[in-house]
Amino acid sequence: MKIYTRTGDKGQTSLIGGRVRKDDIRVEAYGTIDELNAYTGQAAALAARSGDLSDLAQHLEQIMQELFDCGSDLAFADEKQPVYKVTGEPAVELESLIDQYTAQAPDITRFILPGGSDLSAQLHVCRTVCRRAERRIVTLAEHHPVNPEVMIYINRLSDFFFAAARAANARQGMADVEYVRSAEVFRKSK
């Protein structure tokens, strides 16, 4: 099978049920999900090489599967009641993981900057790309039907990346990088 098809040479691409311009808001939304998936793969590779973080690597690999489902759910040109892949269950699972990883890191009182370990910094890249994906999906939802479970999942996922980045630093014996000019803006956990 050839990788190149030449069908996109004039600036169009195929979606499920039709063709659109490559700068269509649907392509922008699922393309940003694809970018996030690539960064997540990089984080998973770092986690797999980081000793005692194989559980995080496995969670990231599962997230990559779920991100592909999210992209698929955004790739419908035909808006007649598509059968969506993403349900509410993955977001609920993320909430459990967020709680688990949050408990592994010290309480925070100030804003956190990306950094510490390589893995933590990469997870912060994932967090920011995830937020951009969320903005693209919100724009898409203004013009086309969008699976609401995708929006919920992506919103929860950025919180997961934040919690995982902090846990990665803690588990690797590295401090988070605090924003030095920040006042104490978070309350300590009880």
From TrEMBL:
InterPro entries for the chain: CblAdoTrfase-like (IPR016030), CblAdoTrfase-like_sf (IPR036451), PduO-typ (IPR029499)
Keywords from the UniProt entry: ATP-binding, Cobalamin biosynthesis, Nucleotide-binding, Transferase
Enzyme class, spelled out: transferase
GO BP terms in the entry: cobalamin biosynthetic process
This protein's record includes keyword Repressor: no
EC number: 2.5.1.17
GO molecular function: ATP binding; corrinoid adenosyltransferase activity
Catalytic activity: 2 cob(II)yrinate a,c diamide + reduced [electron-transfer flavoprotein] + 2 ATP = 2 adenosylcob(III)yrinate a,c-diamide + 2 triphosphate + oxidized [electron-transfer flavoprotein] + 3 H(+); 2 cob(II)alamin + reduced [electron-transfer flavoprotein] + 2 ATP = 2 adenosylcob(III)alamin + 2 triphosphate + oxidized [electron-transfer flavoprotein] + 3 H(+)
Domain called Cobalamin adenosyltransferase-like: residue spans: 3-167
Pathway as given in its UniProt record: Cofactor biosynthesis; adenosylcobalamin biosynthesis; adenosylcobalamin from cob(II)yrinate a,c-diamide: step 2/7
Top-level division of the source organism's lineage: Bacteria
Gene3D superfamilies on file: Cobalamin adenosyltransferase-like
Recorded family membership: Belongs to the Cob(I)alamin adenosyltransferase family.
Complex and partners: Homotrimer.
Protein name: Corrinoid adenosyltransferase
Organism: Paenibacillus abyssi
